[in-house]
Amino acid sequence: MNRTEAREKATALVAQMTIEEAASQLLHSSPAIPRLGIPAYDWWSEALHGVARAGTATCYPQAIGLGATFDRELLQKIAGSIALEARAKYNAYSRLGDRTRYKGVTMWSPNINIFRDPRWGKARRPTEKIPYLPLPL
Q1: What are the protein's UniProt keywords (predicted)?
Q2: Would residue 2 count as lying in a domain?
Q3: Which range marks the domain in which residue 129 is found?
Q4: Residue 4 resides in a domain
Q5: How many CA atoms lie within 13 A of 40 on its CB side?
Q6: Residue 106 lies inside a defined structural domain of this protein
Q7: Domains in the chain: how many in total?
Q8: pLDDT digits (tens, 9 = 90+) for 8-21
Q9: Which of 49, 26, 43, 30 is nearest to 106 (CA)?
Q10: Reduced to 3 states, what is the DSSP secondary structure of residue 15?
Q11: Sign of dihedral through CA atoms 9, 27, 53, 131?
């Protein structure tokens, strides 16, 4: 399915939803809509340095450490590994009917933000401690 076909299919599907059903899909935890064949899905999954909170997973260094390598090829390999592990976990949990938080494939990290204030509680997350880092990575 190409992008145009996917957009057309999504538009047709949304057109069949009630306003309540459509609104229910706007939250991070989207309930199933059985009459349309839409399974439940939770959009909140984390993978800052590996797939988090979904059982055992490979753990990589924090984003700041990875960014400091300036090694784009290494980061691509790590991202590919995380993606593969996330998809495998999603497939396994889906077979069990578990579509709760942290079991999806929509990862909310890494954070792309230039770190400017040391009081920021999530300061360790972005690779951009040095504003130059996001450019080559």
Answers
A1: Hydrolase
A2: no
A3: 40-137
A4: no
A5: 15
A6: yes
A7: 1
A8: 999 999 999 999 99
A9: 43
A10: helix
A11: positive
